[in-house]
Specification:
By secondary structure, this protein is mainly α. The chain has a domain at 172-240: Orthogonal Bundle (Arc Repressor Mutant, subunit A). Helix content is 87%, strand content 4%. The chain contains 5 helices and 3 strands. It has helices at 3-171, 173-180, 187-198, 203-209, 214-226, and strands at 200-202, 231-233, 238-240. It has a 3-stranded antiparallel β-sheet. The model has no long low-confidence stretch (mean pLDDT 77).
């Protein structure tokens, strides 16, 4: 190979090397830019990763705290369930005691109601007896007043009868004879005595009052009426002097 060829080859080599160098430089620059971008991205991702790790640590810490709280709450729930069962048992016992106390209180209450009913009944009877006694007392007072009135009337009537008797003795011999023999068992005497006692009486009542047969009483009364000693109203059966 000649010198010219060698120089030509060297020139071409240099040209190719320059081109290669330019190309390599260009690729190297691109690689450096890419590396720089990648580094920046890695930095950003590293920061984000650090933040995420911090967040994860915080969340793990919170989760641990929540687990601790959950365990505490579970223990509290167990304690509450245990207390609930104890309170349930105590409530049942208290209800049983309440029922027993209620039953024991109801018995005196029923007895008290029965006693109240009996007392009310006795009070009603007492009130009725007091009212009855008041009525009886009033009746006694009325009867006493009536008795006094009857005694006064009877005394006045006896005075009148005595006067009539004196007059009859003076005016009628037959009547005087009957009165003189009033101790003897003579129907006319009993009839006249009964009429004198009442002053006025009914034929039927007089027949029941006399101690001899009604036929004899009616016959004797009619005879006395015919003799004018007594007055007999046959329509009403009323007998008077």
């Amino acid at each position: 190979m000649s010198a010219e060829e060698i120089l030509s080859f060297i020139e071409r080599f240099e040209g190719s090397f320059d081109m290669f160098h330019q190309v390599m430089q260009k690729h190297f620059n691109e690689i450096i830019q890419n590396l720089s971008l990648t580094w920046k991205k890695m930095k950003v991702e590293q920061k984000e990763n650090s933040k995420l790790q911090g967040t994860i640590r915080e969340q793990e810490s919170e989760l641990t705290e929540l687990r601790t709280r959950s365990e505490e709450l579970d223990r509290k729930i167990e304690d509450l369930n245990s207390k609930k069962e104890e309170l349930t048992l105590e409530t049942r016992e208290l209800k049983s005691e309440e029922l027993k106390i209620t039953d024991s209180l109801n018995k005196p209450k029923l007895e008290l109601e029965n006693l109240s009913t009996k007392i009310d009944s006795i009070n009603e009877k007492i009130i009725a007896k007091e009212s009855e006694n008041t009525n009886l007392t009033q009746k006694k007072i009325d009867n006493g007043n009536r008795e006094n009135e009857l005694k006064s009337t009877f005394a006045k009537r006896m005075d009148e009868l005595e006067k009539q008797l004196v007059q009859l003795k003076q005016n009628n011999f037959f009547t005087s004879f009957l009165i003189a023999h009033s101790d003897e068992d003579i129907p006319e005497v009993d009839i006249l005595a009964a009429i004198m006692q009442k002053g006025r009486c009914k034929l039927d009542d007089l027949k029941k009052q006399l101690d001899f047969p009604p036929i004899m009483a009616v016959r004797t009364i009619k005879q006395l009426a015919l003799a004018g000693i007594i007055n007999l109203d046959e329509n009403t059966g009323t007998i008077t002097f």
